[in-house]
Design a protein that fits this description.
16 helices; DUF2891 domain-containing protein; 362 residues; two-stranded antiparallel ribbon; mainly alpha; 2 strands
Amino acid sequence: MRNTLLLIVAFSCNAAKSQSIHYQFTGDHIELTEAGASHLAQLPLQCMQQAYPYKTGIVFTDSTLILPPSNYHPAFYGCFDWHSSVHGHWMLVRLLKLFPDIPEAAEIKAKLSQNLSEANIATEMRLFQGLNQSFERTYGWAWLLQLQAELLSWEDPIGHTLSKNVWPLATILAQSYINYLPKMNYAIRVGEHSNLAFGLRLAYDYAVLAGDTALRSVIQHTALRFYAKDTDCPLAWEPGGADFLSPCLEEADLMRRILPPPAYRKWLKKFLPQLFKKSFSLEPGTVTDRTDGKLVHLDGLNLSRAWCLYGIARYTGVNQARLTAIAKEHLQAALPHVASGDYMGEHWLASFAVYALTAQND
């Protein structure tokens, strides 16, 4: 028993030391340090060119088409699945923009250049047709557009080259949104990949940055069509057992982009009235087994809740301090477990951590 207690104390001390090196705590915000950026960059660097284990979402029409993932995804064959590979690339670009002198900079640039070559992207594009035209809809689509947005805003020669390479695929997926969204009669309100509000939000940010007025317009219309009249979102029903997104908070985070601030506050008071109460509380999700690919989703939920709450808080007009404090609690609950030692979390959680940490200042 004594040995067990000593191990727990030692682990807690090491975790606290790691937190102090990797993150800077300022009030209700947590900032990523250069050491933290270097630490998190290791995770996608280790898996972005690791082919297996791999989970595919491809529809195969016959057995002759069953080939290694890199045959279909020469750019995004690593990190367990396509979308995780995509947002791993996004994360590395964002880290380089924030911390251009981290020790991993040369390796990051080399691997980005290898994976995001013009030829590799051309091969990736061939998949999105026929029975696979809905491949990674809309979660993977959204992250690819987010990657392109990051490349477009990267003032570096490599950024210009890579954004030119990725542009044709981004154009295909932007058009896929434009074709698909008018066909939808109902929103998808779940806590996993197919959550529509999340897919619209990332794509909207891309459309604004890239000046894609057609995509921006269809997203605005879709968001208003599905969400403008929503009231009393059942936040108390969350989370689901495998959620990594909050359906209520993702919708609220989307709508702050769509509505003017006065209209947004009016909408939010009807949609999530509890956010305006000083007594509002929201417990972070608890993970019981980080080797389970579904259960570990709850670490991601804590990170995505944080980025939503930080963004929403800036638009409420009241109770901002309470919402940002809860956002910080969720970050603190998740950050020690991003590098858990198990691939089920490590292949993707760092991207969510970087998004949450940097979204505080968006």
